[in-house]
Each structure stands twice: as structure tokens, then as C-alpha cells.
Amino acid sequence: MSCESIGIGLVGFGTVGSGVWKTLQENSSLITARTDGAVKLDVRRIAVRDLTKTRDADAPANLFTTDWQAVVEDPSVDLVVELIGGTTTAFDIVAAALRAKKPVVTGNKALLAERGPELFALSAETDTPIHFEAAVAGGIPIIKAVQDSLIGNRIESITGIINGTSNYILERMTEAGLSYQDALQEAQDLGYAEADPTLDVNGWDAAHKAILLATLSYGFPVDPKQVYVRGIEMVRGIDISFAKNLGYVVKLLCVVRAHEDGSIEIRTQPSFIPRTHILASVNGVFNAVALRGDRVGDALFYGRGAGQNPTASSVVADLVEAGRVLRQRSGHHGFLPYRKEGALKSIDDTKTAYYVRFPVTDRPGVIAEIATALAAAGIGISGTHSPVNPSQPDADFVDMVFLLHTCPFGQLKEALKTIESLDCVTDRPVVFRIESLT
Amino acid sequence: MSCESIGIGLVGFGTVGSGVWKTLQENSSLITARTDGAVKLDVRRIAVRDLTKTRDADAPANLFTTDWQAVVEDPSVDLVVELIGGTTTAFDIVAAALRAKKPVVTGNKALLAERGPELFALSAETDTPIHFEAAVAGGIPIIKAVQDSLIGNRIESITGIINGTSNYILERMTEAGLSYQDALQEAQDLGYAEADPTLDVNGWDAAHKAILLATLSYGFPVDPKQVYVRGIEMVRGIDISFAKNLGYVVKLLCVVRAHEDGSIEIRTQPSFIPRTHILASVNGVFNAVALRGDRVGDALFYGRGAGQNPTASSVVADLVEAGRVLRQRSGHHGFLPYRKEGALKSIDDTKTAYYVRFPVTDRPGVIAEIATALAAAGIGISGTHSPVNPSQPDADFVDMVFLLHTCPFGQLKEALKTIESLDCVTDRPVVFRIESLT
Predict the structure, then answer these.
(1) In the structure, what pLDDT confidence band is assigned to residue A199 with cuts at 50, 70 and 90?
(2) Which end of chain A is less packed: N or C, by CB atoms within 10 Å?
């Protein structure tokens, strides 16, 4: 099946916008195949503030304009992507697109937290969808989880680490003993913090995301003015040290919680959390959202919370969803074969390191015999071990463990055939793969 | 907006089926509100094998029948849910529903891994959707992640712990030193393992899930006969001990990985993984899927991989998605207000424990003065600390830390007002919440 492509108008071509462009260039045939030909996305116009600026992606010059209205109004544009940030012009862009009945994709958490109710009402009034997976936690599909996957749940609580800049700064203060100022400077030098990091370090970026999650979970518009927000500027090395000594780590934490009286608690602030909790191991620019529902119980979503490609991943997913609706192809048919020649790798060709336990006769020379056979097969040994406390110290048979370097499984199997035939080996060896998981 | 309800036919009313019934009874008004009235789900017929069996949920007797065909053919049934398991009758049920153009929701991983390609082809041919979020990792929305949220990504690898029974048994062997047999018995006694645990402990339940994830990610049907599968029956205490001593834990791991030559590696087997890796801390009946995409980078999804309510959560999400398509209401309008009287809890009424650091004059009596003020405010102290290594040992001012028991924030604020006015307190106290995250 094939059909006409869907026209995209991009408003904003900074980090995320150029990531969306590149993703659509590099993976568009895959996307079209995965939607059985229904969704072919084509960027037709791009609005930017300054046409002369150097860009991170090489879109054709004739796509660019400084006039966002021309993009929204262009009849060849079916879907509008707003990626300029802020709450004024961005509002006008989204509202204009919805009024033109063009579905909108945005990653603008400030806009939606501050002025979402107006835009959502307009979306319903015009029956024109608005998608914003990229607005919370970058590449992690937490909006879809709350909107769709957990729709049958009463959400009891959401606890999130959803500002990568703050998390990076706190981690560097904790691990490297940096001062707040030095850690912030380092984050800026590495591109993890913007030139103006105000909304990150004062907690409001995280709070905007928490407000969106709370709004989706609890069904009423949350007034940002009523939300308690504190940032990480007040965190000092002395607090980090105390936290460490007491078994905690300091994280900028968003807490959303439903109470029995029907009220909703929402707050964002640097908090002590137990060092052993899974959220304590969320480091660097990663985000995590822990959620508890009355049906699903505890669930956790973890991934890159910002950056060009992870955020583009979510924008593109929204574009595909909007495209499916435009093409009236929302229903899933399971899996659509798009690779006719897909092949599995033979298990013999797959490689890891190995743990092999050989049941052997307890006599001198056993290690040498096995090691010689492994060497003949070209397999390196990283260690050999016998049990520290054998359960039967006087037994004639013991288990001898060999740790082996990475090699194809087929090579190991061949070597084991030889070794099994040795007199000293009394039973079939037991093999576990050692997964490095890098 | 309101509209007619959507008729559900349940085939199978065991653990998951009765969980779906209960979820729809208890949370259906919430679901209808969240879909702006578009999706009202109503169970109209239930097929079971034995009408006399005691059930876990109290559905009206007149809904039940032993004839699944009557359920599929019932004109009041719009959507069919297959929850009987197995690959023969279940196949007939799903195929009959698709031929009747009734969208199907199933959690049957064996059916889809073994005979999915036939059913998916039928789904496409009849243009009738099939949904199966519940087939992999219970309540974790990993199918939607792979099908929709990460559709713009080339999936580089998927690594999962996706059989809770095996994971529970391995954990008990590791933590409590139980033998395989004793751990299996305990899992059965607690309801974590079925009376016939064959498919769990021989690795095939996990392998079926891995096959589904690989099929969705790589676009060709994977032949189960070509997949390498080993279960946990061969794991012995001695291997667990060795793993521990070497810095690893033993997990039943599914590995799916794309290679540069285009081939796909798929295998399921007990493996050693580094004790420090996040997957090593996935314990008990929890599941986790770690995924790497070319755009999103590393992401992880974690939650309950089985059980009545988590699995029902996924079945219900699929029913809502199918219902949205039936009602042609797939496009999201952001958030639809359904609670007019939603209220935030005042920050003063929110409760946690606290860390409070007071900059104070370094003289005797300071702790007593602060402690007295806290006592007067009715706030309990769990500890007081001064810095172990003050940076300026001869300074006149030091920081004194108090750890406080749980109390409302407003109560703490009042107490701090009093304490700030003490002569010995030289600057504003710094407050961190201590989150227990239970």
C-alpha cells in the first residue's frame, strides 16, 4: 500500500528541530514501512527567526522562511510542529494551527503548563489533535503511558527526576565535590545547561512537567501559581555531605500524589531520598518517572530526558500518531512484515564471555588438561576457580569453574566436545553467558 | 458528549479475565471521563469452560456461556477479548473475531509468537485491529513503546527480564540459599508459579515475549524453532555462589540485538550480569526491559510483569484504544477536564520527614534552645548532627543539622519562625524534605 506523503511545517529549527529533520531524513523509509505505507512524512516548510544562522542540519534553503504564519497557512502543510519555546509567540502558533484544523506537535512544557487549558479547549473545539510527548522527559514515552497505557488506572502517585540539568549538577556536586557554581559552569561547558539556566535550576522546568503529568492524571487544570517549587540553587556541599553520611542522596524531585480527601499534592524541590532506592541511581542527564496506579502497581520509566535525538524521537512518534489519524489508520494490525529477508544470527555466531562449570575428578592435572584443550581451541581463560567451601570436602568429584574470554558460542561448543571426552570430566559442563550489558 | 457503550465479549474468565471485569466495574466512569465520553466499555458476554466453577469476580450469571462462538457472533459484542491461553482454540477464537470484523485484544504470547504471522495477516486483510499489550511484561506498556513511541528509532538492542516466576525463583536461590526445587515450591505456594510451571522455568514464556518484541522491532516473522532457549532448571546453588563471589547475579535474560550484517540475535538463557547494573536490581515478580534505539539512546521500562491487576491494566488500555478507533476518536485533544472541583492540597498540609540545617553561633546551649523550640511546636527530633569535618574549625559560626520526624510543612514553618528569632541562629535555616519513597 502506498499513499501521498503528509506535509510537515516546522516552526523552530534549533537543537530539537534539526534533530527532527535528521530523524525524518535518516529513518523515514523505516517509518513508512512500519506503518504499512500509510504514513510518509515530508517536511515542507521551516520557520526560523534568523535565516542567516548556521544550522545543525542541511535542510534545503528554499524550505526556510521567517514567517511562521506562512508555514501554518501553507496548504501543503498538514501538521504543524512548534519548537520555538516560550509562551507568547508559541501560543499564537499553536492556536493558529488548531484554528486551521492542522494537528499540532509540540515539546513546549512551559506553554502547556501555563496556557495548556486554553489550547486544549481549542483542540477539542476544533476537533484537531495536539500531541506533546516531547514536553516531558525527552525520549521517555511517559505522556502516552499516562494518557493511554494506564488509562484504566487511578493514579496514586508520580515521583520523578525530570530535569537533567539539575540532576547533572547535583551528581557532580555529590561525586566530584564540586561547588554549585563550578558544577553549573561544567554543565554549561558540556552543553547540558543552557546559557540561561534559570528555569532548570530554579525548579520550574521540572515543575512544568509535573503540572502536565498531574493535569493528565487528575483531570483538572492545575494553576501553576498554586504549585510549590524550589530549585537547586540553595543546595550546598555541606548538605550533600550530610545526606551521604545519613544514607541519602540529594535529588531534585517532583512529587504528585492523590490523597484520600480528593486533594492532589504537587511539589518540586531538592529532597533527600534513600541511597538504595532505584531513583537514587538515576544519574547525569537521565530522567526517571516512578508511577503507582491502583491496577498496575509500581512502574518506572527511565531514559534520556533531553537532547536532540531523544526529544526528536518523541516528536517523530507524535507526528506518526497524528499522521495515522489523518490517514484514518489508527488501528494496529499487529506487526506488518516489511523485511522479507530478515535473518536470525546463528546462535553459534553469537559472542559473549562465559562461565563454565566442569564436574571433574579431584586429582592433580585437571586444570592443565582442560586449559590445554581450551588453548587448542583458541579460547582465552580469564580465571579458574574451585569452590571456596565445597559441600563435600572429601568427595572424589568437585566442580571446577573456568571464566572464558569472549568468543563465538560455536567455538566454545566445539571445545566442550573435546573436553567432555577427557577422563577427568565426570559430567556435562554447565555454561552461563556473562553479559557485560554495556 | 455521550454516546452508546461499546460491547465487550470476554473469552476466558480466569485470573486476568476477572481482573478485567473488576477494573471495568470499578474504574469505568473514570475511563469514560478520560475519553470525553467517547468510550464507555460494557462487558456483554463471557465464555468459560465450566459454568459451575467458583469465580474471583461476581459477574451476573446471565452473561456466561460455554460457547465462545456465541460470544464472538453476538451482535451486541463489538470487541473480543481472548484470555484462555494456548495456541489452538485461542487461534480459532481470534481468527473468528477478526473475520467477523471485531477488533481483538489478547494477552496470549504463545499464540502470537507461534502463530502471530497468520493472525496479523488476517488482521490486515480484514482491516480489523489486534492488540496485545498484555502479552509482554504484564502492566508495562512495552508493546506500545516499540509499536508507537519509538517508531522513529532503529532498535539496536532489547535486553529483558520478562519472566517473573523465573526471576522470583532465582532471587530466592540467591538471597535465601534455597535449592531450585524448594524455591519453585515456594513460588507455587505463593501463587507466583502455576501448577504446571513448565513454560516459565524452561524459558519459553520469556522467549515467546522476546520473539514478539523482535518481530515488532525488526519487521520479519521470527521462527520460534530457530530461537535458542534455555531455562532455569539447570541453575544450581553452586553457580549462584560463584556468580556472587565474582560480582555477578544470575538472571533469566532475553537478548535481542541487531548486528551490522543485518542479522538479528535472539536468545533466552540464564546469564551472569554485573551486580551493579540496573537490571541486577530487578527482583521478585517484577519485569524490566532495557532498550537501545538510535535516537532515544538507552531507555528502561520496569513494573509488574504478571498478575491479575497489572495484566488487566494492559488489557483495558487496549480495549480503550480499540474503542477510540471504533468511535473514530483516536486524536488526542491534550487533556479533557473531567473534574470541575479538583483541588491542590496546600503545601502547608503536606507531610514528610525533614532535614533542617541551622547556621548557628558555636556555643554551649544551642542544641537545647532549638530542641526546646521544636518540642514546643510538637515536632519530634530523630537526630542532631554537627559537621564531622568543619571547613573552618575555629569559626564562631557552625552548621547544626536536625533530622525531624514527619509533620505537616506548615507546622515546621511556624516552628522555624520562632527558631529564626533566637539569638544563636545567625542565618535562615535550610530545609530539605526526606522522602521515604515507600
Answers:
(1) very high
(2) C
Give the 3-state DSSP-derived string for B233-251, with helices as H, strands as E and coil as C. HHCCHHHHHHHHHCCEEEE
Chain A contacts of B338, Cβ < 8 Å?
A: 219-220
Domains of chain A, each with CATH number or no CATH: 6-138+310-326 (3.40.50.720), 142-304 (3.30.360.10), 347-434 (3.30.70.260)
> What is the residue whose three cell numbers read 480527601?
A261
Apex B360 CA angle, B355 and B366, nearest 5: 90
Longest CA–CA span in chain B (Å) reads: 87
pLDDT reading at B366 higher than 60: yes
Q: Is the pLDDT of residue B48 over 60?
A: yes
Pick A310's closest partner by Cβ from B151, B220, B297: B297
* Residue pLDDT, tens place only, B206-240: 999 999 999 999 999 999 999 999 999 999 999 99
> Measuring CA to CA, which residue among A345, A342, A344 is closest to residue A409?
A345
CB spacing of A132 vs B226 below 8 angstroms: no
Query: How much is the pLDDT for B1?
Result: 43
Mutate to test the interface with A, among B34, B435, B436 (most CBs of A within 10 A): B435
Residue B435 has phi, psi (to 5 degrees) of -95, 125
Closest CA to B107 of B76, B81, B73, B79: B81
User: Which residues of A fall within a CB distance of 8 Å from B298?
Assistant: 303-304
Strand partners, B155: B293
Grid cell digits, residue A167: 540532576
What pLDDT shows up at residue A191?
86
* CA distances to A356, A374, A410, B243 from A379, in Å: 12, 5, 11, 21
Which of B289, B293, B266 lies closest to B278, judged by CA?
B289
Q: Between residues B55 and A133, which one has the greater pLDDT?
A: A133
Cross-chain CB nearest to B335 (options A120, A303, A307): A120
* Residue B317 with chain A: CB contacts under 8 Å: 148-152
Contact B265, A433 (CB under 8 A): no
* Alpha helix segments (H runs only) across B198-334: 198-201, 204-218, 237-245, 308-326
Strands A430-434 and B64-65: unpaired
pLDDT at residue A385, rounded to an integer: 87
Task: Return the residue of B nearest to A386 by Cα.
Answer: B242
> Do residue A297 and residue B310 have CB atoms under 8 angstroms apart?
yes
Report the number of secondary-structure helices (H) and strands (E) in chain B.
13, 16
> Which tens digit of pLDDT belongs to each residue from B179-214?
999 999 999 999 888 889 999 999 999 999 999 999
Share of chain B above pLDDT 70, in %: 97
Catalytic residues of A: 209
Q: Do A339 and B220 touch (CB under 8 A)?
A: yes
Residue B362 main-chain phi, psi, to 5 deg: -85, 85
| A151/B112 CB distance under 8 A | no
pLDDT one-digit tens code per residue, B132-172: 999 999 999 999 999 999 999 999 999 999 999 999 999 99
Closest partner CB to B303 (pick from A279, A297, A433): A297
Q: If you ran DSSP here, which 8-state letter would residue A333 be given?
A: B
Q: How far apart are the C-alpha atoms of A134 and A86, rounded to whole Å?
A: 15
Strand B430-434 with B351-361, pairing = antiparallel
User: What is the pLDDT at residue A192?
Assistant: 87
